[in-house]
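2024-03-11 09:14:02 INFO receiving multi-entity request
2024-03-11 09:14:02 INFO entity count = two
2024-03-11 09:14:03 INFO echoing inputs for audit
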Amino acid sequence: MSSTKFILGLFEDPDEMMDGITALQQNSVPIYDVYTPMPIHGIEAKLGIKDSRLGYAAFMFGCLGGTVIFSIIYFAMVHDWPMNIGGKPAFAVPDFIPITFEWTVLYTALGTTATFFFATHLFPGRTPRVMDYRATNDRFVIAIDVKKNNIPHEDINNLLKEAGAVEVKHNDRKYVSYE
Amino acid sequence: MSSHNESIIREPLITGNNITYAQITEDILRPVEKLPGRAWWIGFSVASMGATLWLFAVSYTFWYGIGSWGLNKTVGWAWDITGFVWWVGIGHAGTLISAILLLFRQKWRNSINRSAEAMTIFAVICAASYIVAHMGRPWMAVYSLPLPNQYGSLWVNFNSPLIWDVFAISTYFTVSLVFWYTGLLPDIATIRDRATGLRRKIYSFMSFGWTGSVKTWQRFETVSLILAGISTPLVLSVHSIVSMDFATSLEPGWHTTIFPPYFVAGAIFSGFAMVQTLLLIARKVLGLENYITMFHIEAMNKIIILTGSIVMVAYCTEFFIAYYSQVEYEQYAFINRYFGPYWWASWSMFCCNCIIPQVLWFKKVRTSIAATWFLSIIINIGMWFERFVIIVTSLHRDFLPSSWAMFYPTWIDVSVFVGSIGVFFTLFLLFLRVLPSIAIAEVKLLLKGSSEQEKKKILQSGHIDATQGAFYKDALTKFDAIDIAEYEKV
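2024-03-11 09:21:47 INFO inference complete, emitting structure
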């Protein structure tokens, strides 16, 4: 049995890579993932990847930030130590709006980014799981996990080549970035 | 889709022949991967001397107190807040480019957003240094935060625009930093995958383990859009709040409702001038003429003429409203501003911001690199004078003629300001050395469709309207990086 774990189809053109995905899908070859140096629009729909739900997270973090700071201001200015400023009401809502707005934005930004990093497993110092070093440069890489199916490797090779892959790699290891 | 053909009448955003994805990576990473040239070292030496001056002047201020500045009982705010507002304003262009232009799907932002955002961050750092420096006793900065304390707790006054400013500037800095760094991740991964040894380890740590998988890119784009959506009102709020530091006071010349939009327009105006100052040099020194093209320079000049004209309308409105209001204090403040002892500062402001930039209506000027750079310096000077004029002319002759005074800066005032420019350029030059100055991934998006070579293919195919082709060729004549002779036979 071959020791190949992953077959990588390396394309130098995003449109040819899209053709490669179509060809693989038409021949029922499951695609593990696709690595590209830039975002490719329309690829999610093609691979059947669901929309990101980060927008919901952003909305909730925004609500949280606004509520937190408004509560702090209410506590400080109205409840804990109300000040008599020319006899005007201590609960001066218009004055509280700018800071409430700022913290709504702050929480949205930090919360959404943190959720993105958490969901995608990105954090400082994480060992990069790289399948091909040129995937961040000038190659559009389709990865096929050949342990998960019984399709002959030659067929996958041919499909990729026909779609325009400039190189097809048979890797024994999943990631090349581990020493 | 990346293969989408763009209309021929749109000008190209990437020029040059035989540009490939690899070529883009190569061109943009050259300053990061190669040792810097002589120009960088000269710039860095001068800038770090400036930064040293700043360090000295601020230390001197802390040691001897605010008395080492030229402030007096009447003019209690002068160069420090002038510098602060100037720097915050400069920062605004970066967020405008990265957020507002993203929402408007202006693709030309892709090649200038990275350095403009870096400029934002460094400008806000310079601005924040003024806040700390003007406290005299910087450890007192803790009292601007609503922390429980042993005086009651005595809280900060949330009704005060100065406290709004603390929240606005800190939020602005944090959000800009997060936006910038998230955008940098794919490009840091590009450096990582090309580097070896220790460099790879460092960039690997900084890349957060970026892989560029489909889901990562999808989330990345969602996050960028959300951050752009919230940064847009944020950037408008920041300078509005800065303007309220003045507008909510009862000082003649400050107490006007026009201040927030007027300050925001002025901020974008000065910010784009600073972007031009930096990028015109960077594109030349780093050899990025194919990515930061004449189209970008002209587009920014158009924004400068628009916002500059808004600022001019605001100056005239202020003057008119002072007359129309029949408030004699307000009238005196403006008569004194333009015809009093600070007439030279006010007219410098008016000439530099309103009159001289009007030459940008001429296409010849907009597409001239030398003229643009010269104008960007003029505008930077003019916008510094604007803040100085607003602050000092309103303060120096207050309600009691017996306390009227002039403001004379000391050499410490001057050193803190000149030094802060040094700090800014030191940070910017270091940024150019260690991080890509152009968003590599975003520029790659432009290669198919918006590049000169793709458009040339469309022209050569001959399937386009002849008038549109002629229009396009005519538009190319302004590009300094395009040899128009190549188009004779096409």
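2024-03-11 09:21:48 INFO post-check: The longest strand of chain A covers residues 6-11.
2024-03-11 09:21:48 INFO post-check: The beta strands of chain A are 6-11, 33-35, 140-145, 167-171.
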